[in-house]
Structure formats: C-alpha cells, structure tokens
C-alpha cells in the first residue's frame, strides 16, 4: 500500500487517465475495464450479504484481471479524515497529527486476491477544505466509474452541534452528483435507472417497514462518526440524542453508520474491515450495534425508524419526524435544534449550511432532497458575499430606474425637435444628439463611493 500527496491532476484521474489507471492498462491491457463491466453485471443481482449496498465491489471471475474501485472521503474540517485513511493504509504506523488536506488528495491501496494474479487497486480521494470545496465532489467519481464507487462522510463527535448540518450538506452534494451520473448513463441505456433503483433498495429487503420512506443513495455511502474517544465521556442523555440523530440520518439515506477513533485499535480494525468490504469485496459481517452506551455500528438497511424513534427527543413525537408521505421536511432542523439545546451552539459554518439547507427545502426541490446543493440563487455561506450582492442589486435597480427616466425625458424633448428639423430641412440633428449624450447616466456616478442616495430628479 502507498500514498501520494498533493494531488493536482484531478481531471485526468476522474477520466481514467491518471498515472495508476494508465499503468494498469499498460501492464494488464484493458482487462481492468472488463473486470469493471463484469462487476457491474454482478451488482445487478439483488442478493446481498447485508454488509453493504449494491452496487458494491465484486471480484471478477477472470483470474487474470485487475479490479479497480473508487472512493471519495469528505466531511467536516478537522474531523480526522486523514488520520483514518492513514490508519487504513498503514495500520502499523500511527499518524495522529497529519497535515491539513488542501482540496483533493489522492491515495491508493493494492491487494492480491489470488496467487499469480494482478493486484486489485483501490483509488482513494480525500477532499479537504470543508464545505467551500464541495463542488469538487463530482471530479473523482462520475459515470465512467459509477458502478465501483463508494462515498465516506466523516463527522467529528467532539463537535456534535455541527454534525447534522454537515451530514445534510455532504449527502445533498453526493446525491446531486450521483443523479447527474445516472442521467448520463440512462442516455445509453433507458432501463438503467429502473434497474439501479431496484438494486439500491435491495439492501433493505422486500419486507422492511421503511422501504417506502427511505431515500437511499444509489452509490454505497458510509457515515463515520470519528473521535469517539472524546464522545464516550459525555453524559448518557447527550450520547443517546446524538446517536439517534446519526442513526436517523444514516437510515433515511441508506448509509452504513460506524463510530470510530484513530486512538482505539478495535474501532480502527472495524473501520478497516468495512473499507475492505467496499474496496476489495472482502467478507464482512452485518453490523447492528445500536446501544447508546456502545460505539454505534449499523449496516445500511439494518435499522428502522421505529427503533430509532422509540423515545423521541424532548416533547417531540414520531409524527414530527415521519409523516404519512415520508420523512418530514423539517426533520433535520428538528434534530439540529435539540442537539444545540443539549450540546451548545453550532459553529458559524454549520449555521450557514443549515440556512442553505432550509432555503433549498423551501424551494420545493425534487424528491425532497433539496438542501445546500444550490439552486434558486439563494444565499451564500459567507455573509460578506450576501451583503455585496445586495448592494450591487440595489445599484443596478437604481441605474435602471434612472435610465428609464432619462429615456422618457429624451422622448418628450425629441418630439418638438423633430418638428423643428422637418420645418428647417433637418438642421440641428448633431446638437440634439449631443444633448442626449450629456443626459445619459453613468454607472460610476452611482457607485457606493459617490454616495448612497438615489439620483435627484430634475
């Protein structure tokens, strides 16, 4: 296993032309592509061992082929993404103080599945920079590697009041990116979307009570609640509340939930086993640990809303979160409010993300999955940007109003001048045009430095 820092060729990697993809093709020919096709076909089988969602990585029957998987790790800034990935790649070497990740960083892992056969390759990207770089979600994973992809969202349990906003934001971004990939693949195969939907819901089983309520992500999704070593010392009521919120968000999005810590060997081993299941199709048991006094570990499709909301927080009821037509629009905001009351206020970034998600819900986005993934032109995470945009909008409104007034004034003055020109044979045209040019307003005269008041009327 190895690691490469300061990845700066994301477009090449996303198109399958990064150095490792090219090397694989040179050594093994196009067998890697054949393996991916075989793996996608295998994913069409709804049978699943319960560990993860289809389409998961499946080892090709062709012993001479190289199987490639693709993973993107995102989440809260400072949540320990780099430490977790370092612990996965080099389990014998601890790196508890890694350098902050800037934008996309590329890593890879290799694993031999049989003797005298090429090693399978797992391409791993870590996205740093927080929500400000979330537009890069679509770079590493797209329609070309959709069938063997996996997303990891890492949150920080030492900052519980920020968890809901960040999970909602990143899940919305991921789903929007996946939706675009599905739309592109459906152009070549009109039946692709329907088949993918069946495979996505297969992990829940036909008899699951929440089958018609959940909105699972078509690509395997993992929520990692990191820094459990800090969180385990919290009081029982706080642990129960945050655990309920994490289980709720994971269940509604069809995600696997795992509490982890880079300082706990048992939890690191559980994380490693989970990633091996997704990246290399290694055997893994079904996770179902929901006790609030223990680290949560719940496989996708293994939870239920009835179990999660057996004791709703505060004075809320089950119907405040789940309605007759599905998950209530303000469910995430309700979890956010109760966690803030119990754990303190959220950070400025989390509050901005929550406002963006609320604006997206208010615009009635398709499928009830709206949030911070844009649309509608509503606010920005930075208040200064909102203020500047409002100022420029006001300047533009005043400029248009002044231009309309001048146009009307010119029209009234032009009528007598036209009569005079026709009587004198067209003389005076140049002077009338010059007068009109003098009356035309300029943008600079309406700039903030020139004064904030509207232009005076003549």
UniProtKB/TrEMBL annotation:
Protein's name according to its UniProt entry: Cytoplasmic dynein 2 light intermediate chain 1
One Gene Ontology CC term in the entry: microtubule
InterPro entries, A to Z: DYNC2LI1 (IPR040045), Dynein_light_int_chain (IPR022780), P-loop_NTPase (IPR027417)
Transmembrane segments: none
Annotated segments matching region Disordered: 30-55, 360-458
Protein's organism: Tribonema minus
Biased composition (Gly residues): 369-380
Family (UniProt): Belongs to the dynein light intermediate chain family.
GO terms, molecular function: dynein heavy chain binding
Basic and acidic residues: compositionally biased ranges: 386-414
Keyword flag Cytoplasm: yes
